[in-house]
Amino acid sequence: MVNYRNLGRSGLKVTEITYGNWLTHGSQVENEQATACVRAALDAGITTFDTADVYANTKAESVLGEALKGERRQSLEILTKVYWPTGPKGANDSGLSRKHILESIDGSLERLQTDYVDLYQAHRYDHVTPLEETIQAFADVVRQGKALYIGVSEWTADQIRAGQELATQLGFRLISSQPQYSMLWRVIEEEVVPTSAELGLSQIVWSPVAQGVLTGKYLPGQPAPEGSRGTDDKGGAQMISRFLSQEETLRRVQDLRPIADELGLSMAQLAVAWVLQNPNVASAIIGASRPEQVAENVKASGVTIPAELLARIDSVLGDSVVTDPRETEKSSPRP
């Protein structure tokens, strides 16, 4: 079964493996299969589920809500996010304005078929709306009982610090950060992780398998396997293109196989276990298009990778690893 970790400096516990439905529910995967994946997650001991209103333009939340219907609500941790445009994409249909946040939480709760979410997250930093307005709106969402905790996603260390200061003044605290993090993408390590540890936030990381690259199924000099994310025309291929265009990176990933074998892990399990070695990481988000993928990935929970093998991983990947903290800033659109 899956282990639990506290989320930030809060009493909320989440499973080390979070089931996420970005790029799957409502788009790549039919609803029946999506429900089967959610059931597999529950059977494996996962109780933490991550989604966002923008995924499949609100459909992903609806699919997840339907799949979880009938489960004991108190036994689940449901996470969703707000920022990106949904619906007709009008002038106020995106960002972190008070209007958009307060309207969006109501839409998310209706689609998820719940009275509250455990964690409501700012999906990006809003460079247009005053931060004071955003944090005040989140404070009101918490006071209304519509979200129990607040987190952020892809915020820089400075943005997290400013947000936490305002939140503290209003009587609540940010408890989590949701960044991209993997063996190949380590941009949070220099600034975001130490700042989060200082301020009482922990990471719920997305793409721990680097959109599938760290499974080893993408071979240098060969086309992406049929049916893989690398051939998906609904957004998956675009997201993974950065890694697939780097032949040397794909070659180095293949050199990780002996390390995975030594630990008795698959390549995907090694990748998920690797991010969980970081003490500031509370949970790794996995996605799945088939139930068996969930059953395999949860085996990464509780794994300890010895220090000498962590050093070997660093040596194998070398300069294929992206570490520049400025990459985080690039993820939030500017006017």
TrEMBL record:
Q: Mind listing the UniProt keywords for this protein, alphabetically?
A: NADP, Oxidoreductase
What protein family is recorded? Belongs to the shaker potassium channel beta subunit family.
Q: Does the keyword Oxidoreductase apply?
A: yes
Presence of the UniProt keyword Phosphoprotein in the record: no
InterPro entries given for it?
AKR, K_chnl_volt-dep_bsu_KCNAB-rel, NAD(P)_OxRdtase_dom_sf, NADP_OxRdtase_dom
Segments traversing the membrane: none
Q: Which Pfam families match?
A: Aldo_ket_red (PF00248)
Protein name, entry field: Aldo/keto reductase
Stretches assigned to the NADP-dependent oxidoreductase domain? 16-316
An example Gene Ontology molecular-function term: oxidoreductase activity
The terms describing its cellular component in GO are: cytosol
Coiled coil segments of this chain: none
Report the source organism.
Answer: Cellulomonas rhizosphaerae
Gene3D superfamilies, from UniProt?
Answer: NADP-dependent oxidoreductase domain (3.20.20.100)
CDD domains per record: Aldo_ket_red_shaker-like
Record-linked SUPFAM superfamilies: NAD(P)-linked oxidoreductase
